[in-house]
Design a protein that fits this description.
Number of helices: 4
Number of domains: 1
Radius of gyration: 16 Å
CATH superfamily: Ferritin, core subunit, four-helix bundle
CATH architecture: Up-down Bundle
Order of helices and strands: HHHH
Distance between the termini: 45 Å
Number of strands: 0
CATH topology: Ferritin
Largest sheet: none
Low-confidence stretches: none
Mean pLDDT: 92
Shape: elongated
Length: 148
Amino acid sequence: MAAKQGAATQVSPALLDKLNEAIARELQVAIQYMWQHVQWGGVKGFAVKNELKSIGISEMKHAESIAERLFYLGGIPTTKPNPIFVGSTLKEMIARDIEDEANAVKLYKTIIEMARKEGDETTNRLFREILEQEEDHHDTFTTLIEDL
């Protein structure tokens, strides 16, 4: 879908598609981390439950911000998350979370570069801010898995 009439910034359909890819990813991990938070117990789980919940909430806020930007640019935000993986052990959960955050970092660097090339400074700035948080999430998960 092309940018809506009246939007000050015109971007490519490819960039709009990447924004929707980012939304699907954010919805996925928001649900994934929240369900991990709900389902995990025990001493080690107790130590990470609140962190999983906090990061899940952060990811939902990312989905909202990206959806608002996409809609402004004339796209329709997806409501379908990427496949959700809860896992059956804490180590399995955190290992998958590390992988998902690494994939986010890669995707968001691509979006930043596309936005920069297309002169879309607002999307560029939004994703630089989100990228910083995703790198922090990745760091948190890689630190957590060290003791599992």
